[in-house]
């Protein structure tokens, strides 16, 4: 399954992903159009100040098994069979707050959406941009990220790649020639002897 | 192997699906007295308030049973279970033999035992049939009394207000949701109840329901007050449905006490959900809270163990979430200060209407109440279920910095 992979160490906290996410989940799917919509679109990921106050992007991990799916009393949360993504059906959501109680990552927000304008609020979280994935494009947040903190791919492959990079760094460190300490020029040594 | 599961709601359905994960060949029989495919009982109050339609309450598509090769015996109540002969007798006369039995028969509304409970216009709300009866019998614009300001009572009050009824909530304790909230959170909730237009009478016990020509006309309280109402909805809790165990060694034990593997005293009989009493997460003593998340979690454990796994149930944690008119409350764990070194910490942001109350015991977080802002509720429950000592956490739960960034970053 391809997912959005987060590398918090690269995040600079520019929040462009949030803007792109909100635009992608607006009715018009354009920044200018989104500004004029009666129900303002909400981003589905948040950037928190993490440990040492480095930026920490937090979004749905699409867990398997998903605790939110198990506690949903409305049957609104399901796993999309082909994409493997956990999705919330806004027309079934009853805004009860059970999913927030179950989610260990605190990714859920409750707000109104244009799909169901009659509802005060529904549970929202990352749906990994279904329209974009269908069209073979990357999710909006990944496209917006300029520093490679959000990438799109298979997480196992990404982990292997990270492992290889680490191994390479370790080996290149071991193979490096020991640094030669510059010795004092002969003339200076002799001059000091004289003095 | 022949698996028999009594009950097709949260626990029974989850257990059946879990059994299928591990045993694709075994015969799996689901028994329910309701001739309906699995539906969500908590949705009934939303159905009553017309916030959801009938098409929204079904938990699984119609083809689900067929796809997973479940044999369903719906619409036939269980008359008797014989643990020695390993047989289940249905009231229609059929006998079902089992190798592993799961009792997930759930619970039914508790009645008050006061005069007049059989009158027309006295309702409960637990099954779809109860909702149908309410829809059929409830006069438009009638004044309704709801006895019990628990989760069901409150959600029913909201639903009936949406339908334009006058609603009077009657609660025996001094505050709504007495088992989940303290006074401050209850006060916040009361404000929202007031905003809904529902009246709340606390510290009041119903004494009798009186009627005229077989219909409810008033509800008399124990202190002498008389409420003029045209309908009474009883929401005073539930009791397990285990009548079919009558005459077996399991009888007289309601709710059914199970061990950490959700087995009863018969190793081939398991129990899960509202009818079972599983070990508490903190004390280990058998408890029953009748909550959806516990029923699903127990269904998973029982289903796996029925196929021969030895999965241990991590323990029951009281937890509930209720949303009233958009105002959310999440509460769980130990909420009453106990005698052994309990610390209670509260913070109330009056301006934003946000309340946090945390209960600590022996260096661990054991109880939490969040009102108004519940987004991070899952974090608290995560450290509670893992029993992580507060000093080992990256950030103190009392701190305003307690959010996913500091915990997971």
Give the SSE map.
The complex is a heterodimer of chains A (195) and B (409).
Chain A: E1 2-6, H1 16-24, H2 31-35, E2 46-49, E3 55-58, H3 67-71, E4 77-79, E5 86-88, H4 98-102, E6 109-111, E7 122-124, H5 130-134, H6 140-144, E8 150-154, H7 155-175, H8 186-194
Antiparallel strand pairs in A: 1-8, 2-3, 4-5, 6-7
Chain B: E1 2-6, H1 10-22, E2 27-32, H2 44-48, H3 64-67, E3 71-74, E4 78-82, E5 87-90, E6 95-97, E7 100-103, E8 107-109, E9 122-123, H4 128-137, E10 143-147, H5 151-162, E11 166-170, H6 183-196, E12 199-201, E13 206-212, E14 215-221, E15 226-228, E16 231-234, E17 238-240, E18 256-257, E19 269-271, E20 276-279, E21 286-287, H7 292-306, E22 319-324, E23 327-333, E24 342-349, E25 354-361, E26 364-371, H8 377-385, H9 404-408
Parallel strand pairs in B: 1-2, 1-7, 2-3, 7-19, 9-16, 10-11, 10-16, 11-12, 18-20
Antiparallel strand pairs in B: 4-5, 5-6, 8-17, 13-14, 14-15, 20-21, 22-23, 23-26, 24-25, 25-26
Helix pairs in contact in B: 1-7
Give a verbal description of the structure.
Chain A has helices at residues 16-24, 31-35, 67-71, 98-102, 130-134, 140-144, 155-175, 186-194; strands spanning 2-6, 46-49, 55-58, 77-79, 86-88, 109-111, 122-124, 150-154. Chain A has 195 residues and is an alpha+beta fold. The longest helix of chain A has 21 residues, at 155-175. In chain A, 33% of the residues lie in helices and 15% in strands. By secondary structure, chain B is α/β, with parallel strands linked by helices. Chain B is built from nine helices and 26 strands. Chain B has helices at residues 10-22, 44-48, 64-67, 128-137, 151-162, 183-196, 292-306, 377-385, 404-408; strands at residues 2-6, 27-32, 71-74, 78-82, 87-90, 95-97, 100-103, 107-109, 122-123, 143-147, 166-170, 199-201, 206-212, 215-221, 226-228, 231-234, 238-240, 256-257, 269-271, 276-279, 286-287, 319-324, 327-333, 342-349, 354-361, 364-371. In chain B, the strands form seven sheets. A five-stranded parallel sheet of chain B has the order 3-2-1-7-19, with helices on one face. Chain B has a five-stranded parallel sheet with strand order 9-16-10-11-12. In chain B, helix 1 runs parallel beside helix 7. The mean pLDDT of chain B is 93. The A-B interface holds A 8, 46-51, 54, 56, 58, 67, 70-71, 73-75, 91-92, 94-98, 100-110, 120-121 and B 14, 40, 42-43, 46, 51-52, 56-60, 292-293, 296-297, 300, 319, 321-323, 326, 328-330, 332, 374-379, 381-382, 394, 401, 403-406, 408-409.
């Amino acid at each position: 399954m391809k997912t959005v992979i987060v590398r918090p160490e690269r995040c600079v906290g520019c929040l462009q992903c949030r803007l792109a996410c909100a635009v992608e989940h607006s009715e018009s799917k354009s920044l200018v159009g989104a500004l004029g919509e009666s129900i303002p679109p909400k981003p589905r990921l948040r950037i928190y100040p993490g440990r040492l106050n480095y930026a920490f992007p937090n979004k749905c991990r699409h867990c398997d098994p998903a605790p939110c799916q198990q506690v949903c009393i409305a049957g609104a949360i399901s796993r999309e069979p082909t994409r493997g993504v956990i999705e919330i059906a806004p027309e079934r959501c009853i805004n009860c707050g059970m999913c927030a109680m179950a989610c260990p990552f605190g990714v859920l927000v409750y707000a109104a959406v244009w799909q169901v304008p009659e509802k005060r609020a529904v549970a929202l979280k990352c749906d990994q941009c279904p329209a974009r994935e269908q069209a073979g494009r990357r999710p909006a947040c990944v496209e917006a990220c300029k520093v490679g903190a959000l990438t799109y791919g298979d997480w196992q492959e990404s982990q292997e790649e990270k492992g290889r990079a680490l191994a390479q760094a370790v080996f290149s460190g071991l193979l490096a020639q020991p640094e030669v300490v510059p010795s004092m020029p002969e003339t200076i040594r002799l001059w000091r002897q004289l003095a | 192997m022949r698996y028999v599961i009594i009950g097709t709601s949260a626990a029974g359905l989850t257990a059946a699906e879990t059994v299928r994960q591990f045993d694709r060949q075994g015969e799996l029989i689901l028994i329910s007295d309701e001739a309906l495919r699995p539906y969500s009982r908590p949705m009934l109050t939303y159905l009553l308030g017309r916030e959801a339609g009938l098409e929204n309450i079904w938990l699984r598509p119609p083809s689900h049973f067929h796809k997973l090769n479940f044999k369903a015996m719906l619409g036939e109540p269980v008359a008797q279970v014989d643990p020695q002969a390993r047989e289940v007798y249905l009231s229609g006369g059929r006998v079902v033999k089992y190798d592993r039995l799961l009792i997930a028969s759930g619970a039914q509304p508790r009645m008050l035992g006061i005069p007049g409970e059989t009158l027309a216009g006295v309702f409960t709300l637990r099954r779809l049939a109860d909702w149908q009866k309410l829809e059929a019998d409830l006069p438009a614009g009638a004044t309704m009394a709801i006895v019990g300001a628990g989760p069901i009572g409150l959600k029913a009050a909201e639903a009936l207000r949406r339908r334009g009824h006058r609603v009077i909530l009657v609660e025996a304790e001094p505050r709504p949701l007495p088992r989940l909230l303290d006074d401050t959170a209850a006060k916040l909730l009361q404000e929202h109840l007031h905003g809904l237009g529902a009246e709340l009478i606390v510290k009041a016990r119903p004494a009798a329901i009186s009627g005229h020509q077989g219909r409810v006309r008033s509800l008399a309280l124990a202190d002498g007050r008389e409420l003029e109402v045209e309908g009474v909805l009883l929401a005073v809790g539930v009791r397990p449905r285990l009548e079919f165990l009558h005459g077996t060694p399991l009888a007289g034990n309601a709710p059914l006490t199970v061990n950490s593997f959700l087995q009863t005293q018969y190793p081939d009989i398991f129990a899960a959900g509202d009818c079972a009493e599983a070990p508490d997460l903190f004390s280990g003593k058998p408890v029953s809270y009748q909550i959806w998340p516990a029923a699903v979690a127990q269904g998973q454990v029982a289903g796996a163990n029925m196929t021969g796994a030895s999965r241990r149930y991590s323990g029951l944690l009281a937890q509930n979430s209720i949303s009233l008119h958009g105002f959310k409350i999440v509460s769980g764990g130990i909420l009453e200060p106990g005698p052994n070194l309990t610390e209670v910490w509260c913070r109330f942001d009056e301006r934003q209407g946000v309340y946090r109350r945390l209960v600590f015991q022996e260096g661990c977080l054991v109880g939490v109440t969040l009102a108004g802002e519940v987004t991070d509720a899952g974090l608290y429950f995560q450290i509670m279920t893992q029993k992580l000592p507060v000093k080992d956490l990256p950030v103190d739960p009392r701190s305003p910095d307690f959010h996913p960034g500091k915990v997971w970053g």
